[in-house]
Automatic annotation (TrEMBL), chain A:
EC number(s) recorded for this UniProt protein: 1.12.1.3
Taxonomy, superkingdom: Bacteria
Protein name in UniProt: NADP-reducing hydrogenase subunit HndA
Organism: Psychracetigena formicireducens
Entry-linked Pfam families: 2Fe-2S_thioredx
Family: Belongs to the complex I 24 kDa subunit family.
Keywords attached to this entry: 2Fe-2S, Iron, Iron-sulfur, Metal-binding, Oxidoreductase
Ranges annotated as spanning the membrane: none
UniProtKB/TrEMBL annotation, chain B:
GO biological process: respiratory electron transport chain
Organism, scientific name: Psychracetigena formicireducens
Name used for this protein in its record: NADH-quinone oxidoreductase chain 3
Gene: nqo3
Residue ranges occupied by any 4Fe-4S His(Cys)3-ligated-type domain in the UniProt entry: 79-118
One Gene Ontology MF term: 2 iron, 2 sulfur cluster binding
Major site of localization recorded for this protein: membrane
Cofactors required: [4Fe-4S] cluster; [2Fe-2S] cluster
Automatic annotation (TrEMBL), chain D:
Superkingdom in the source lineage: Bacteria
Entry's EC annotation: 1.12.1.2
Keyword Oxidoreductase on entry: yes
Organism per entry: Psychracetigena formicireducens
Positions of transmembrane segments: none
InterPro entries recorded: Hydrogenase_assoc-protein, NADH_UbQ_OxRdtase-like_20kDa, NiFe_Hase_small_N_sf
GO MF annotations, alphabetized: hydrogen dehydrogenase activity; iron-sulfur cluster binding
Sorted UniProt keywords: Oxidoreductase
Designated name of the protein: NAD-reducing hydrogenase HoxS subunit delta
Amino acid sequence: MKNEEVGQLIKEYKETGEPLLTLLHKIQNLIPHNHLPAEVLKKVSRELKIPVSSLYSTASFYSMFSLKPRGKHIIRVCSSPPCKLEEYDSLIEAIGEKLNLSIGETTCDGQFTLEEQSCLGLCSLASVMMVDNDIYKNVTVTQLPEILDTYVEE
Amino acid sequence: MEKLFLKINGNEIEVEPGLTVLQVAKSFGIDIPTLCHHDQLSPIGACRLCVVETKQGTLQPACTLPATQGLEVETESPRVVEARKFILNLLFAERNHYCMFCEASGDCELQNMGYRYGIDHFAFSPYQTKFPTDFSHKYILLEHNRCILCRRCIRACSDLAGHYVLGMVNRGAHTMLSPDMESPLKASSCVSCGACAQVCPTGSLADKIGAFRGKADEMTKTKSVCANCSVGCGILAFTKANHLIKIWGEWESPVNHGILCELGRFSPLNEKRKRVLQPIIRQEGRREVISYQDAIKKATQKLKEAKNPGGIISPKTTNEALEAFNILFSTSLQSKNTGLMESYNEKAVKLSADGCLEDILIANAVVLYKVDPSTSHGVVASWVKKAVTKGAYLYIVTDEENSLSFYATETFKTSEADKLVNTLENSKKVVVILNPQVESADLEILKKVKAVFLPLYKSANSLGAIKKGLNGFFEKSDVALIVASDFSGDGNLLASLQDVSYLIVISNFVSPLTERANLIIPSATWLETSGTFTNLEGKTQDVSSIMEAPEGVKTDKAIIEDFMKALG
Amino acid sequence: MKIYRLHVLLSTDSRSILRGALEVETKLKEEIIKKGLENEVQILRTGGWGIEEGVQLTVYPGGLIYVINNVEDIPYLVEEHFLKGRPVKKLMYEIDAPAKVEMTAPIEEEIMKKQTRIILRNVGLINPEDIKEYIAHDGYQALAQVLSTMTPEQVISEIKASELSGRGGAGFPTGFKWELTAKAPAKPKYIICNADEGEPGTFKDRVIMEGDPHSIIESMAIAAYAVGANKGFIYVRGEYDLSIDRLNIAIKQSKEIGLLGNNILGTNFDFDVEVRIGAGSYVCGEETALMESLEGKRGEPRSKPPYPSTEGLWAKPTVINNVETLANIPLIILKGAEWYKGLGVEGSRGTKVFTLFGDVNAKGVIEVPFGFTLKELIYEIGYGIKGGKNLKLVQLGGSSGSFITPEHLDVPIDWNSVRKIGAGQGSGAILVLDETRCVIDFLKNLLAFFNHESCGKCVPCRVGLPKALDLLNRVTSGNVEIDELGFMEELANVMKNTSFCGLGQAAANQILESLKYFKSEFINHIETGYCPANKCGRL
Amino acid sequence: MAKVKIASTWLEACSGCHMSLLDMDERIVELIQAGVEFTSTPITDLKHPPEEGVDIGIIEGAIGTDLHEEEAKHLRKKCKILIAIGDCAVFGGIVTMRNYFSREEVLTRGYLETESTKDGKIPTSDELGKLLPKVKAVKDIVKVDFYIPGCPPPADSIYTALKELLGGRVPVLKGDLLKYD
């Protein structure tokens, strides 16, 4: 666990009053597997004197935070109605078949997590999909293997 | 203030500003149904059952709708009733609300609403998802299948009790009640105050001991005062056939406003100690049951014959019993050799002229001076947590672990206690909570602090006893009378009795003290006694007997009066 | 100062970046150096034009717009146009519409023919990462004018006089909102820019933040001056990385030259802005939920009253305005309320940014004065329905918006006219669905979206949505009686009337409108299993 | 006066509701004198409602097997007014507790793993009903006209409902007549 870095971030929060959600984003980006582990939340709770239940309530509310470990790469398929008009269903199905995954799950090898993504404001380019921070537009099932293969570890 | 005129169900109503429609309706005897709302909790408008129809034709929740000039609402219009039925149908279908296997059936607010609105079947098929049931906790059962997510428990746990154990996890249809971070209740930071179970409208949070033992309206309810520490919390005890079923915090109590601690709410239900039920005499190494009259005769005879009769009384007995005890010794026995089962630093007692518990809630700074109220005076700990969440600073002086250190702004070693004086210099309102057994050196430091002082006496009537001049053990005695209540007598007490050749003990339970006694007389517990207690603030409150004492068992006061009668 | 012969504006908004803007930029630079034109041609990064094709290069003088779909075309373009001065026709922007529109230079005019750009005045024209460009386009002049010549009361009365109304969806008069906060006694006060643009189909705020971030900061400062606030927050969706970056750059630059901070422009007015990031919650677009989120809590809406104007962020008086609303402010100050009122129609003044997408030929962001009809927007600016099909339905205002059926295509889009047909213009998203789409499938997607985003606080929304979805699934599987449609309608009515916030109400509206306009489609699904999109078919 | 014919049946339930029906005691006689004829009921031991149908059908119990489903549908066809009586028929009731488990788990527990079982076997005879994946309330299978909840419903509730129906009125159960347990 990146204890020191997390500690440093919390210290900055205390000094600058940086907002909680931003702090949680930063911590999550630090932690391997893109999540907020219980020990880290406990540490935040202790340091900032926010009751652990309140912190957990907040963290669990937002879809960008994960409380359980995720894969190395996060596949987010935009699930807002405009994207669902296009390829959403077949994309989810194809990803499911290729990686043996359904929404919210992580592959056994810990490589990929599949998540629904709320509207990215790229509706004119539907269907939209993100892998980590890379955005793909007008995605079709045929392009999918190629996209995913670039993330598969050698 | 300008008066407001509004119309509810066509009736002109005149009210003061600042109220919600629900409050106004209630004060005029108009019953608007509620579920997520609870009179003690701040309204959140979540369940939408209390909707009323405005003149403009909108449905607004009465619990959060402010009463404004000229407002006109209907509380049972056809649209309102239709909406309420639908909301009930949605609630019934969200989780498992089959009444016939629920503990709360008969006391359930959801069920009552179903009856009130004639829900004779579920309009939606209920979900068949099984939610977890958490049996882990010693006293509290958390049954997610019955939860309607009204958040009363969360608000009680946080806003009323200050513990912040319960929260909501996830969102939307996946929202769940969660202790800490979805921990089992037992492993969570729950302090077993039980406020959650008291406010739960359904069978989702229940007190395990009282569960499945009948409906509340089949029980006798008695208001009284808790005897488990010196806070003097108001309680409402539920009994059935002289069995104690459950204890609630009394909302009306000016001391605790409905909040209790583990000791207050659950320990009396969990009483495992063995009662003394008959007078017992020990002669020539043998124990014999004797009659009450013989016991009184024997005891008074021994006391009369004594050179130096002595008496020690429990700080858990009523002011009336203490009074009788004082008269017994001063008048009937002509002895000044009396004492209390506890001893306090008189100077600490004097320090606390006018402190009260409410001061904690409005303090800017709170000091815990060599004291940890969590296990002994739970409601004080609650109040401290509430003060801190409202923004008060908390300073702890201790060399040991303190269960409230999470909330502390700073913790001082006892050797650094004098640092407090400077730290608190700029705080407007300071409350120092201290152990009344502190040394005089501590008091020298504390005297320099401008503050309200609250000594945490151990027992329900410690202050009452001190005020009657009782404090600490007697010096020396040959025949001694101990009115023990439920005290078992610690090593110090037993040591102080070394020279006593004949020991008479009036006690609730079998204990090392009764083992040492030559004559034991059974007494009624506080649950079986009426009278008054004086709490740590100096408030004298009425204690009512909640249960009947076992046959032939009398209260301390009655026994002492029988002593006086026998002594003439 | 260097003088360039040609200025190339390169679209680098997030949608262009997706289409390879950064690769185009590298290649352009490479080729320009190769041809030795580095002192003659300047490449400037800007926002996008609102064209949903390739990477757009606008070349000045001339205002020719090229759409680059393949970097391999760049050497030719540089050689022909930049070196030899011969515009490359085959790379120019053309609209793929049935009636092919011949583009004649300057193409800027073609795109702008019907549009009026006030809110998007700088988008596509300036480098959003350079404050100097904003200033060169009259940026921060309105702030300077306000601080040096106007009292806060005058600012508020000017905004009131302009009749500017909120562009977030509710259309509340902005000046009035400011006045309420200005008059509230409690202190401190706050300005919040609501940039939590989560409404599916809406990306206008993103275009502004990515293309012209300073306009938001300037407007917030003006608002702060008007109401007496010294602190502002821009609450941006966590998903909008580029917006967050550009806003942060803009704030940093403004601070550096004293347009934010203490004693702005030598006056005693202090103002500071911070960007705060959301974390994935649609309901946080609701103003009180947004405030809860800003305070670090669950983004659940609060009961109203009290309203944010008097008890908002940390229970202090707060002005909360949408990005698009704010972007209007500087021009209103500079050109005056009277000028602004000259745009649009009675009751709806100024312009509105729409996002046009779905089954339409030209998708994108457009800005027109209020009062255009949907027909004009779809058939003239959007060049009609893809593949020449018939229009089935327009969803106006995003997923929480209203259904507009073909018979209402001539209704002008302004607050009053739209209200008359029982709809709302919402955020300005225009989703066009053609005749082959299935309404029930669409409705299911809408409800699934709302179900995912419901905060779970109130019963009608938390439980009503899954129950409505259950019912819909039974409709598509044919496992339902026709009279249960009436029950679904009752459910939707209760949800609409009793939900805590707009989310549950909007979701219910989608059900009600689907049933109102497309009941026969429901009945067809139930009775015959027929689905126009062949999506819900019982196979 | 023409006879009002009543048929009742007992699906997945404990029979408590029929006991409650009998608890009407002499009021049964009163009903019969008023023109009621009980045709097929578990009490009269007639298995099938008369071919020409009945006026009132009463179902106790939830729908747990394919046979229950068939029987409910059959009675629905044969009656004019269908009443669901008791919590199992109305809500699904206590028998829905098995919905938390799979069919296999239920059968294994029931026939193989109970403490008193020796050499147990899961019955497979075709004559036995097959468990549906989930137990359902009657209204989830067929249209129900009136509901009398309760576990069991008070005899007074059943009596009142029948009396009201005989009088041509729509029964509304209120107060002590409406209970869930």
